[in-house]
Amino acid sequence: MADACCGPPPVTTATDVAEHRRLWQVRDLQIAAGASALLAASWIAEHYGYETFSTTMELTSAVIACGTFVPMSLRNLLRGHIGVGTLMTIAAVGVVALGHVAEAAMLGILFSVAEGLERHAVSTTRRGLRALLDLVPPTVSVLRHGHETVITPDELTVGERMVVRPGGRAATDGIIRAGYTSLNLSAITGESVPVEAGPGTVVHAGAINGGGAIEIEVTARATDSSLARIVHIVEQEQERKGSGQRLADRIARPLVPAVMILAALVAAVGALLGDATLWVERALVVLVAASPCALAIAVPLSVVAAVGAATRNGALVKGGAALEELGRVTVVALDKTGTLTAGVPVVLEVVTVPGVTREHAMAEAAALESRSEHPLARAILDAVGDMEPAENVVAVAGHGVVGTHGGIALRLGKPRWIGSGALSDDVERLQTAGATVVLLEADGAVIAAIAVRDELRPEARDAIRELTSLGIDTLMLTGDNQRTARALGESAGISTVHAELLPEDKARLLAEVARGRRIAMVGDGINDAPALATADVGIAMGALGTDVAVETADVALMGADLRHLPQVLAHARHARRIMLQNIGLSLGIIGVLIPLAATGVLGLTTVIVVHELAEVLVVVNAIRAGRTTPFTGQASPVAGAPLAALHGSRSLSAVPLHPLR
Length: 661
Hints:
By secondary structure, this protein is of the alpha+beta class. It is built from 25 helices and 22 strands.
């Protein structure tokens, strides 16, 4: 264990994780149980008059119990590292030298129990994270040379085709090339509603095939799959420390040498005033009373428990810093596309100038967007089909794209960039209806307005309502036009809407709208990367499919259901309260025990019992941070109902626009 903080070494291997699968398998607890049995035997022997045997059992119990921390403390002391274990070692040796062998055994037993409980809690939460990798099946069927072959996931290569039958799991990430089915992602995202899938659908490692047999083209080796990436990132980021943990460290580190100096002063000054032996004993009691081990483990253990629980429920929290900041958030800013909306817009209407057909306008727009991955571009491409790509295409950040097609200079982008011209009335009508409008310009003249709309997620209004019930203010930040943004914000229950923003505008605006409060930004992790990095906490939607989301954000929601957001915020607040409780309890115990020990009000036995039981209480309380209500992912009771019926007013769904077929 690390001498400075009393913590166990990280549990990083499968063997380590398996070792602590049951509480009674924890080595520290086994040692404590053995030492307790010997101590009880010594008391029984003493009762019947076997003094020599009783003393031998007491001494053996003390050696066994203190063996969990004394050797490591001595090695650290030789390297110049002084920590809590050093205090415990000095106290144990001094107590034995004063003839209180039973008390030394009790000190070692209770210390071992506290350490064992911490070790078990850490291994349990980390095992929950590593259990994600257990979702990968031990074998997988692949098509090689026209025949099915059973291999291990490690043997898979990119481009091969896996065959996953009903009830089977995907061994790695891939794309369905044959077959239709429904995929159960509950073990990964926490959402229990199956997802319909067919050719072209992206499948992530661990997904359960709930329908017919499918063929999946492998896009990542098993060691590079989405699950493996998530586990690696979380384990790496768990080393980051929140401000509460840094506070505990700042208190614990100087406290150790300060206590040693205080104990020396108690012994020296007391020896000048009275019985030297009495005051040396009191000095040793002060060392035990002031041990900050409970303080040092108070926050780290809470972080490990809370992060592990969040991961099991579909939220990727990257360490203690993110967890604590998340627990302090009182304002949440949400991106529109892909966050409040489903991120799958469709073309609703195309208005052209005289002499230009709808088909020609769409073909030109699709030519410009042929290589774009923007959601609006995908809507245009899906509505057209095959097209000839434009040449010299250049994206103008926050505005649109330019290029040439058939010798004609084209521009496609926002009305404020291009100018509506003769189509201004139509643009206003479409925007009032809640659609996003892009204009197509050919050789300097506007020739078409294309209306695209991305529907609000059915659970968005429920999520916003839950955030409000937590006392969290919500606002929308979007690059879309004011009319569209306000129409959608009203439907979602968000009154504060900031529209027509460039990516850098979102990042700059966060500090202004927060007004000194802790603010979280929720986005897709790609276009919103600057804002995610600028916010106190960046939260990305859909961690499974987006590397940028996992790398940029502090928290990533692995599923696509927005109701994960209020759940993880409530969980972080609960965990932060536990951290503060543990810090307060630890400091309170130390503050009370030191003067009582120094003045002789409390003896060694009482101090040992109170101090170590307080440490056990801190551990037990920290484990509470790992408790959270599992997310069911059930559809909203109002999901699928017309928005006009839900909100009692004219809404996006009530607008008489129809997607192009």
